[in-house]
Design a protein that fits this description.
By secondary structure, this protein is of the alpha+beta class. The chain contains 18 helices and nine strands. Among the domains are: 97 residues, no CATH class; 223 residues, Transposase Inhibitor Protein From Tn5, Chain A, domain 1, CATH 3.90.350. Strand 6 and strand 7 form a beta hairpin.
Length: 461
């Protein structure tokens, strides 16, 4: 059938519409901007000129991670269409070349680029964004699930309480974020069970991220003796909830009293050396620590900020409420961006996929920081999801980075403000009922065999 002029025009219009919905070039332009160009050129490996060079592959990986359809076929189709419309040589729609390019993409390139962007944004923050002029770092952990493949199960085994074939590989992640800007400064990934798989071990592996003068805020799980000692040795202060093992023995009648339920105490070094610590490290650790312990807002806090005139109990009460921000940051990464369930079937690519999500998150946070500066706001006052939606719309409409258009984009980003979230209490329960399907209690191939033999049950339990 020979196409008519009208049918060709309709076909071209459909192609242009599809191309306008793709945002690969948007990430490519953002990664090629002046801020990141030098860093990317240093991190990029030596490569021949191909259809999918490292920067292009990374931008496609970003697009893939943030799309509703995260299949490799979808992102390759977008890239091929863009080449056709821009009068370049037509490439194949097969995904093999892109998958190989994604495997060759160095993990160090993605992770170092994420850390570089986070550190850069954090260092550019105005002083009035910080707490008492000091940078605050939030720490917390979370988990994500991976596809149930043998390789993933070997590297990130499922929960020991689940039968084989019924669970999914679980990866534990501990991250460090900036309180003022919200960017991710560093992260560590590991197994969810076994030796060295807890959040404390992962945090120790990235504690070099903290710099002199920083304040580290976390929950009670991280307030251990040797972590506090390590932070004091680096010139870093901590504000955390009292560790669970010491809560019951807290007695405000002891120590040096500096206020109502506020005193200075001495923590003695544990007599037993932890398994992860060498004999030399244990011997060089201080024999005692002098810290401040206070009760405020219904919580017992420990801190190395011991001057009550500079840091009052009321200051700590309002300050520690901001620890909730890292819970919101994790929700933005896992739920809003979609990192909760990974899609890569090998552990190496899965770790790379996590860093791609963190890079995408930092790119959005960069634009939020710029929007806050233009609008004289704090970045935490701006809605993350609103900014993400506007950025996606901008990529669909605009073909180039125009200074005037970007300024208007930042102004639009600052219009939607979040409410005052401090002290919010929500039940850990969901209202919507799940569908009335029973849980899978045996491996899928056995369940299929039962259906073939006996048919589907007449009534779902």
């Amino acid at each position: 059938m020979h196409p008519t002029q009208a049918s060709r025009q309709h076909q071209q219009k459909r192609i242009q519409t599809h191309q306008s919905n793709a945002d690969i070039n948007g990430f490519y332009r953002l990664l090629s901007s002046d801020l990141l160009a030098d860093e990317i050129s240093e991190l990029s490996p030596e490569h021949r000129e191909r259809i999918y060079p490292p920067t292009k592959t990374l931008s496609m990986f970003l697009t893939q991670a943030m799309s509703a359809d995260r299949s490799c076929q979808n992102v390759v189709n977008q890239a091929v269409l863009q080449r056709v419309i821009s009068d370049q040589n037509r490439a194949s729609t097969h995904t093999g070349a892109y998958c190989k390019a994604r495997q060759k993409l160095p993990l160090a390139m993605v992770s170092q680029l994420t850390r570089f962007l986070g550190q850069w944004v954090s260092k550019q923050t105005p002083e009035h964004w910080n707490w008492n002029g000091r940078s605050v770092r939030l720490v917390d952990g979370t988990t994500v699930t991976l596809p149930d493949t043998e390789a993933n199960q070997e590297s990130f085994p499922q929960s020991s309480g689940q039968k084989p074939g019924l669970g999914f590989p679980i990866c534990r992640i501990v991250g460090i974020t900036c309180l003022s800007s919200g960017v991710v400064l560093n992260a560590a990934m590991g197994r969810c069970c076994g030796k060295g798989s807890n959040e404390q071990s992962l945090l120790r592996s990235i504690q070099d991220t903290f710099e002199v003068g920083d304040i580290v805020m976390g929950d009670a799980y991280f307030a251990t003796y040797f972590f506090i000692a390590a932070m004091q040795a680096r010139g870093v202060d901590i504000v955390m909830e009292q560790h669970g093992s010491r809560k019951l023995s807290t007695d405000f009648r002891k120590g040096q009293r500096i206020g109502t339920r506020d005193h200075l105490i001495q923590l003695n070094k544990p007599k037993k050396r932890p398994d992860w610590m060498s004999e030399e490290q244990y011997l060089t650790a201080p024999v005692a620590l002098r810290i401040r312990e206070l009760k405020t807002g219904g919580k017992i806090l420990v801190t190395t900020l011991t001057d009550p005139k500079t840091y009052s109990k009321e200051d700590f009460k309002q300050f520690y409420k901001q620890r909730w921000h890292i819970e919101l940051d994790i929700r933005n990464i896992k739920e809003t961006l979609g990192m909760n369930i990974l899609s890569c079937k090998s552990p190496e690519l899965a770790i790379k996929e996590v860093w791609v999500y963190l890079l995408a998150y930092n790119l959005i946070r960069l634009m939020m920081a710029q929007s806050a500066l233009h609008s004289d706001l704090m970045p935490r006052q701006i809605s993350f999801k609103h900014c993400l939606q506007l950025w996606r719309c901008y990529l669909q409409i605009c073909r180039a980075f125009d200074d005037k258009q970007l300024y208007e984009l930042f102004m639009l980003m600052s219009e939607q403000r979040v409410g005052n979230r401090s002290g919010r209490i929500e039940p850990r329960a969901v209202k919507r009922r799940p569908k009335p399907f029973p849980l899978l209690t045996k491996p899928r191939h056995e369940a299929r065999a039962d259906v073939r033999k006996n048919g589907h049950p007449k009534k779902l339990k």
